[in-house]
Design brief:
This protein is an alpha/beta fold. The protein contains 14 helices and twelve strands. The chain has three domains: 40 residues; 252 residues, Spore Coat Polysaccharide Biosynthesis Protein SpsA, Chain A (Alpha-Beta Complex), CATH 3.90.550; 114 residues, no CATH class. The strands form four sheets. The chain has a five-stranded mixed sheet, sandwiched between helices. A three-stranded mixed sheet has the order 6-7-9. A two-stranded antiparallel ribbon has the order 5-10. Strand 2, helix 4 and strand 3 form a beta-alpha-beta unit.
Length: 425
């Protein structure tokens, strides 16, 4: 046998043996080391690596546990990473809240549970107490940022880092234009009175509402200095009539004093007589002069406010169209647009991949789909989702909360009551 042939065989043997040894070595390594090596070998870094320290925050009571179990948690499991950190704050004085907290902390997503003592700062309204709690996030988290959600937050698409932070700054989606009703007109007046200047935007317009914890502390101090009294006294005075929004207050502060630290997007709500100036709100000219064209361009939301959502008339559901029947369809549609058309096409036959995914642009009766730029925003979002899902797949991570994505597709599919005459063939 020629010497060069012997040399080639020996070389191939050494390479083959080395590869086997490397694979066995990797198999014995801790999971986080294995994933890091896999990312290095495949040239794919973890997309979540550069996201700032962040925790999802929900203030609730045991009476809302059924909504938490039915709406918030199933949608988080489908569309968030498995290691998402959740903080739950409950009432300390009620036995039912303690029982609820013990149950929640022992199952997915294994939240950190805190119990809050009652305060004299709110006027015996549970809604006021919930909002008051959100002004003290440093009592419950060491994270740099909190992302506020409600128990009836329904996530409707895979959440990517870009949905939460752009260039390391939180995304804020505000709404201006036609005020939804008299309650929100009262909110604008309340925010204006609190700050001594017109309200800029409605910030109950997306979930999660992400704010830097340090800025919420500074907000309290700013209002104390402006009104010359403790924050809790201010809160009690301003909530005698239960008309205010903690998110509008937070956004007013960060827009005024920390605008460069956030990525603002502003949605026009051109409903009804929207050109009429609204008392307590900035004049319409303000939005043209103070927000760039990009800041006035649509961006996707990843959640709807379930209790305040109007299903479209052309849904694939059997009538009647209502919130109870709608939420499984919203989850399935989110799965399909998040890769389900390829992963589980049979389950997605009711939807059209090329259609606008309306839930990305519709929040509390404020629909953005009148703007043709929604199509571009949707394509950008789902390109980000595709890269993220591919990373999960390459690293053998859960997709839609399951090791086998088909399991999630089938589970949600079975809960949708479909009008078969609307099936897309």
């Amino acid at each position: 046998m020629r010497a060069d042939m012997i040399y080639k065989r020996i070389t191939l043997g050494v390479i083959f043996t080395s590869l086997i040894c490397i694979l066995l070595w990797i198999k014995l390594l801790p999971v986080h080391v294995t994933l890091a090596l896999a990312s290095y070998v495949m040239g794919t870094a973890n997309p979540w690596t550069n996201v700032p320290s962040f925790e999802v925050f929900v203030r609730m009571c045991s009476a809302k546990k059924d909504i938490y179990d039915k709406i918030l948690i199933p949608s988080m499991k489908l569309f968030w990473p498995n290691d998402t950190r959740l903080v739950v704050v409950l009432d300390n004085e009620t036995k039912s809240d303690h029982l609820c907290g013990e149950e929640l902390r022992n199952r997915y997503p294994y939240p950190k549970v805190f119990y809050e003592n009652p305060s004299k700062a709110y006027n015996n309204h549970g809604h006021d107490r919930q909002q008051w709690s959100m002004f003290y996030p440093e009592n419950y988290t060491n994270a740099e940022y909190v992302g506020f959600v409600d128990t009836d937050t329904l996530f409707v698409s895979t959440v990517t880092p870009e949905d939460l932070f752009l260039n390391g700054k939180p995304v804020v989606i505000g709404v201006y234009g036609s005020l939804l009703n008299s309650w929100w007109r009262g909110v604008a007046l309340k925010t204006s009175k609190l700050f001594g200047k017109p309200e800029v935007m409605k910030c109950m317009g997306y979930f999660p509402v992400i704010v830097k914890v340090e800025h919420i502390v500074k907000l309290r101090h700013y209002l104390e200095k402006r009104h010359n009294k403790p924050f809790d006294d201010i809160f009690k005075e301003y909530t005698v009539v239960d008309i205010f929004s903690q998110f509008n207050i937070m956004c007013q502060y960060v827009y005024t004093f920390h605008r460069s630290e956030y990525n603002f997007r502003i949605q026009k709500r051109p409903n009804g007589n929207w050109m009429k100036e609204s008392q307590g709100r900035m004049p319409l000219k303000f939005y043209r002069d103070n927000f760039t064209a990009k800041e006035r361009t649509p961006i996707t939301r990843v959640a709807i406010h379930w209790r305040y959502h109007a299903p479209q008339k052309d849904e694939v559901l059997l009538p009647p169209y209502n919130l109870k029947s709608y939420y499984p369809q919203a989850l399935l549609e989110g799965i399909c647009h998040s890769g389900g058309f390829d992963i589980c096409p049979d389950h997605c036959r009711y939807f059209n991949k090329s259609n606008i995914h309306r839930n990305l642009f519709n929040f509390e009766y404020s629909d953005w789909t009148w703007d043709p730029a929604c199509d571009r925003a949707q394509k950008k979002h789902y390109a980000d989702v595709k890269r993220l899902i591919e990373y999960y797949r390459l690293n053998d991570m859960n997709i839609f909360g399951e090791k086998t994505a088909d399991v999630a597709c089938e589970r949600i599919f079975r809960s949708v009551k479909v009008d078969i005459s609307k099936v897309i063939h």
